[in-house]
Structures are given as C-alpha cells and as structure tokens.
Design a protein that fits this description.
mainly alpha; 29 helices; 0% strand; disordered C terminus
Length: 564
C-alpha cells in the first residue's frame, strides 16, 4: 500500500489541470488521408502539449501517431524495442482508415455530403435498416420496433446516437446507408442490438457504437468490391440500386410482397470510387496488397486481444475479486481509455476501438499491476489465455484470491495519481516535467502490452491464423503469400519451392520455424527489419512449468496453484 498512499501533487502540475480548469475541445471531423503523411512533424516539435486542456483529439492523434525515438522518453524505450511490428502499422488501424476514406469521399462529393447531412435522409435510412432487419411493411412499423434484448425502441436509440455525433452525423448516415444496401437481414438484428446497448449510455459508449457502425459498413463495402467490381451509379432520387445478385434485390421483392410498395427507402450511394477492385493475386503488387490487407485485419484483432490481456481483463478480474462490480463493469467502456491514451502518447499506438481522449467518466480505473502478483501476469500473458475474458479461465474462478498482492484504491493510475481525463494522463506520460517515477510506473503497462508483440509471440500467432484463412476476408492469403514467396526466394536464395515447406521444419507442418516467418514478414514490410534479432533478445523468461495447469491447457481436468 506504500506506493498507493503517496501524494502526487507534483504529477498534477505536468500538464494535467484539475476539473475546474478542464476545457474539453470540440471534436472536429476527421481530415482525409493519413495523419502521419498529411501532417509531417514540425522541426523541434515536442511530444507533449503545453496546454492539454485545450487540445483537440485530432491534434493529439496527429502528434502521438508519429513514431519518434529521439523524443520518446527513455522509460518507454524497452517497450518500443519489444514490438516487432513496423511502427507505421502500430500507429494505424482499420477503423481510422475507414473514417479517413469516408471523410475523403464526403469531401470529394459535396452533393453526397449534403444528402448525408440532411436529417430527412437519416430518418429515412435508419427506418429502412430496421425494416430490413425485421422484414417490416413500412416506416411506421420500423419506428415502433423494439430491440428484443434491451427492450427499447431501436429507431429512438439510433436517433440518440445521431444527435450526439454532431460533427459526424454525415458519416453516421453514410455508414447506415451502406449497411442498408449491403448487410444480410439475418445479421442485422444482432448488430442493431449492439448499437442499442451502447447508444443509450454515456458519450464513450456512444463513440463505440459509432465506431461499430463504421467498421461494419466499410467491411461490407470491401467484401462487396471483391465479389462485384461493377458498383452501381449514384441516384439520390431512386430506390435502392444494387446489382441483380445482391441481397438487396431479393429483399426489395420481399418487401413488395409485404405491402411495402411506395414506402420510403434508403437513398443509394455511388460506391465506384470508394474501394479499389480486388487485387490480382498472381502478380507481385496484387499479392502484396492482399497480404497487407489480411495483415491489417489480423493486426486489429491482435491489438484488441493484447489490450484485453494487458489491462482490461486483469482489471476486471481485480474488481471482481474485491467485490466491486461497478468498477468491473466500467473497465471496458471508460477505464480502457486511460490505458489506450498512455499507449498512444508513449508508443504512438492506435487501437481498433478509437479511444476517447476526453472521457469524463473516471470509472473502473485501477493500478492493477500494483494489486496483482507476478503469477497473475504469468497467467494472463500465457498464449492459451490471450484475449480471453477472465471468467473463462478456470484457475481465476477457483483460486483467483491467490493472485492478489495488495488491495489498491480505485480511480488512481498509477497509484497516487488521479486524473479526470485520459488525455491528462497521456500528456503526463510524455511531459518532461513529470516525475521519472510516474513514467517508470506507466512504462510497466506499455511493456505488458508490448509483450504480445514480441517476434516469437506475434509472428507465430499471425502466420498460423492467417494461413488458416478462417475469415472470408482472409481467403487468398495462401495464394498471395506463395506469389510473394517466389520473389522472396529469388532474392534470398531460399531452397524450398513453397512457403509452407520453407517455414515448417517437419513434413506434418506442426513445427513452425518462427525465425523464417519473421524474415518473410520483415521482407514484406510488415515487421521491423531487425525483428529476427528480437527472437532471443526478448524471449519470455517465465517457466511454463510454474504456471497454473489451467493456463497451459484449457482441457486440464484440474488446476494446480502457481508457485508462490
């Protein structure tokens, strides 16, 4: 408790004003293009901000998305060195790219922006989406449809979200229009239920609902481009304009048979310039484009699971252990923003679920790695438990109390430091006047996250998951990789004729040679050029024999306690 009981007035002065002094900057629409490309660093620009209270999310994301070793505080150097993925990949995310592409599209087509900004368009499209999801006859029935799980009016909840997203209402309507055109009616009720769950809550939860809609809409758009390169022409006055073999065509017929003729429909949009045509996997450029697209998809998934195992699930487990269900239930919505803000400022990392720098709800915050012991980290960091909710780990359910080192006060991260906004803690993490002790304590959280991006851990996970091609968007990864391997083989002199023979040491393809996977990924521009040298430098020190049995195998009949 000693570390937690210390006062920290000096830390507050490092760019972290109190509640009365805090002014939340208005969220502006995202600019088109890449943050790092469109906003190169200004000579001598520091990593911290002088007045963080008046800094917008865009300004923070722009500056902190740049990987700058020279201006990175030395406390975070070890965490940065542990990460084998190229910084450009870590500072980007598919959600951010989708938002940038959407903004670029709206900027290029002023008529589209006007249409998407019109409240009448939104009112039409949201009811059209609900009609499609529940096979309803008209807009009135859609307005009265309730979500079966949360028992609320779906249209009313989405309208609450629209009213909140003042600067991004056009983006929201655009996303809903794509979903209305392209989504499967059978999948829509579940997606709408997710939105209803978040849209009726706080600002941070509403942001998550918005991100989910953006992710879903552009994911559908990319899938559509792969299966149908002939996108329809825009026609703001027409009904839904889709290709004959799309789901929308059959749905239109279904609605007509239900007596919905003449009812308001969602306006269609021109998708011809939004997403490029599917790449030719037989060419080097096409194969590289597809491999990188698959890698981006996997990397977002890996980041989410790393955030869960490094902070979210340990924090939820701690709160559950001490009987604080309120704190436990707010970690994934609010507390995670503090953790993500530190990763953003210290390491230039962006997570798939874009963080809320201005989250005013300081709930579920805890210095969890001060509270839990080393055996807890051995458990949460084990590959078997990567990304798993703590409720699904048997040992945590049965003997979790053995992992508690000391209770700590909630609302402090790290212990002794209380901030009212995530951006305050982030700025303190890189502010030169912040105590070195604060940076060392936050560096531990960066290292916990970076652990899952060590070459040995990440390359193995990434290759095995991508090679399996279990998700539709990853189909073709093998063929594209084989195309690239032909060029790789010519340049490096590799002997094996196929990539799978090159990276597996045995004829049954069970012993993966991670060093060869790392070399291939680095050649493709996915990992750092020196990633191979990290294999021994950052190898895990924990002995698996000391871990709880349940962490080694989910099929274990019983769990033994860790070595204490």
């Amino acid at each position: 408790m000693g570390a937690c009981a210390s006062t920290n007035a000096g830390r507050r002065s490092a760019g972290a004003p109190g509640v009365a002094d805090t002014v939340v900057a208005r969220e502006l629409p995202l600019p088109a293009g890449s943050f790092a490309d469109d906003h190169p660093p200004v000579g001598g620009e520091p990593r911290h901000f002088g007045d963080i209270s008046r800094t917008s999310s865009f300004e923070m994301r722009t500056r902190w998305s740049r990987y700058d070793e020279e201006r990175m505080p030395e406390e975070y150097a070890h965490a940065a060195a542990m990460i084998c993925v190229m910084p450009a990949w870590m500072s980007g995310t598919r959600t951010l790219r989708y938002l940038q592409e959407m903004e670029s599209r709206l900027r290029a087509d002023k008529a589209l922006r006007r249409r998407m900004s019109d409240a009448r368009t939104f009112n039409t499209v949201v009811r059209s989406v609900v009609r499609k999801a529940y096979d309803l006859p008209d807009a009135r029935a859609a307005s009265e449809q309730r979500d079966l799980i949360h028992d609320c009016l779906i249209v009313d909840r989405v309208e609450q979200l629209h009213a909140h997203m003042v600067a991004r209402q056009a983006h929201l309507t655009y996303a809903l229009t794509l979903i209305d055109e392209l989504d499967d009616p059978e999948a829509l009720p579940a997606k709408l239920s997710e939105i209803c769950d978040r849209a009726g809550r706080c600002a941070s939860a509403k942001r998550q609902a918005f991100n989910l809609l953006v992710q879903r809409s552009y994911h559908l758009l990319e899938q559509s481009s792969r299966s149908n390169s002939n996108a329809p022409s825009s026609d703001s006055s027409s009904a839904r304009s889709l290709s004959p073999d799309s789901r929308g065509a059959s749905l239109g017929g279904a609605r007509g048979s239900s007596g919905a003729a003449g009812a308001a429909r969602s306006p269609s949009i021109d998708r011809s310039s939004s997403i490029s045509a599917p790449p030719n996997l037989g060419t080097r450029d096409g194969a590289m484009a597809h491999v990188r697209a698959c890698f981006e998809d996997y990397l977002d998934e890996h980041k989410e699971r790393a955030v869960s195992s490094a902070y979210v699930e340990p924090a939820r487990f701690y709160f559950d252990l001490v009987g604080d269900t309120f704190g436990r239930d707010h970690v994934a919505v609010h507390s995670v923003n503090w953790f993500l803000a530190v990763l953003s400022a210290a390491l230039g990392i962006q997570a798939p679920l874009l963080l809320d720098y201005d989250d005013r709800h300081a709930l579920g915050i805890v210095d969890v790695w001060q509270a839990l012991n080393d055996d807890a980290w051995a458990l949460f960091s084990h590959p078997t438990n990567f990304g798993r909710e703590f409720e699904g780990v048997r040992y945590l359910r049965e003997r979790g109390a053995l992992l508690l080192k000391t209770p700590v006060p909630s609302g402090q991260l790290p212990c002794g430091t209380r901030t009212t906004l995530p951006k305050q803690l982030a700025n303190m993490a890189v502010h030169p006047s912040s105590p070195a002790r604060l940076r060392r304590e936050l560096a531990l959280y960066c290292e916990r996250f970076a652990h899952f991006f060590r070459a040995e851990f990440f390359a193995r996970k990434a290759f095995e998951v991508l090679w399996a091609e279990l998700k539709p968007e990853r189909v073709g990864f093998r063929r594209a990789s084989d195309t690239l391997y032909a060029a790789y083989r010519a340049e490096t002199g590799a002997e094996e004729e196929e990539l799978v023979e090159h990276v597996y040491a045995d004829e049954y393809y069970t012993e993966l040679d991670v060093s060869r996977v790392v070399a291939f990924f680095a050649w493709a521009g996915l990992l750092k050029p020196d990633a191979a040298s990290q294999l021994e430098l950052h190898a895990p020190a924990a002995d698996a024999s000391l871990l709880p049995v349940d962490s080694r195998s989910p099929f274990a009949a019983a769990a033994a306690p860790p070595s204490l």
